[in-house]
């Protein structure tokens, strides 16, 4: 009984700001929260104690080259390396920016000359290189490169500019919390623009709503929804004003919910006996993806297994604004596996079941004929498309275990192809970092 009352209280309390009402106890200090959520370092062993540290802040630092000398030492980000003894001793530190020049093949313990050339590897990597020099043929075979993917022991780092060197430190891996609750695969995540609420959808047919401002130490969701009974959740998308969100399931009808999880409406379903998709009032087969317009809070986009993309007005759930039929090599119905807006909301991209990527520009008098057509973008279903903010780069993820980078000004061939990325789920996504210098995707390991 007490647990039920606590859950009801948490759900109601999450709807109000923290300053509402009298606080029965003081707020937890931010420093204590930070220390509680610190991510633990990977387990260490006797074989790799030199390359890994027991501190969550130290283990990435062990992968960074250590500069040789400096007249103005700076505070270290991790445990300092052992200080050498002798006449040529120096103060070791972790630098910020490109490494100082070093000499090739010259040991500063011999004559103390200024080093010029690439930096030396850290102690752990140097030990690995020494083992290779002893004649371990099996490790040498594992170091072969295929399509830019390194297999085997790490090689000594090469000279790089400060941006590349700091990539490791721009990935947020210092703290983490685990939001449990789902019983099957988590297939969709959406964070509102204020960063206070998170939605998670799953193959267990439910959507869970988390509120960071009203969350207690149990880290539980304040509301659980089942948008469409018996249908997996495939995508979630917040409106630009974060007052509503779109839920796309395996059914033919998308739903709109308000910020508190109350149903606002459900889009109409089309007549499955009408052959021409442009004459149906809505989708007639299961949805595959959906996104809210990045700027217009009344417009959304959906794609479906019926072979069409549709633009809707959220103020009218019974009619659609536009029906888009992709270009096909032969007549028929090929599913549209994913869709995406660009950052300005002026272009739409669709991933088609035949492996093609098609892009439409929203302009007066536009129709279903794509402005950009890539016939063999992938050899299998495309699971996600993502535009860069400047509208010049497009990322595509596919079930053919690859991720491709496209230049939208020249779409004949991909700029870069990343292979050997296992993908067994139709909702495997892509995301850019805030400065768009990095991007990430999930893999089915």
UniProtKB/TrEMBL annotation:
GO cellular component annotations of the record:
nucleus; site of double-strand break
Give start-end positions of Acidic residues composition bias. Answer: 130-148
Q: Name one Pfam family in it.
A: WD40
Could you tell me which Gene3D superfamilies the record lists for this protein? YVTN repeat-like/Quinoprotein amine dehydrogenase
**Per its UniProt entry, which superkingdom is the organism in?**
Eukaryota
User: What InterPro entries would the database entry show?
Assistant: WD40/YVTN_repeat-like_dom_sf (IPR015943), WD40_PAC1 (IPR020472), WD40_repeat_CS (IPR019775), WD40_repeat_dom_sf (IPR036322), WD40_rpt (IPR001680), WD_repeat_GAD-1 (IPR051858)
Q: What is the protein's given name?
A: Transducin/WD40 repeat-like superfamily protein
Q: Could you tell me which species this protein originates from?
A: Populus deltoides
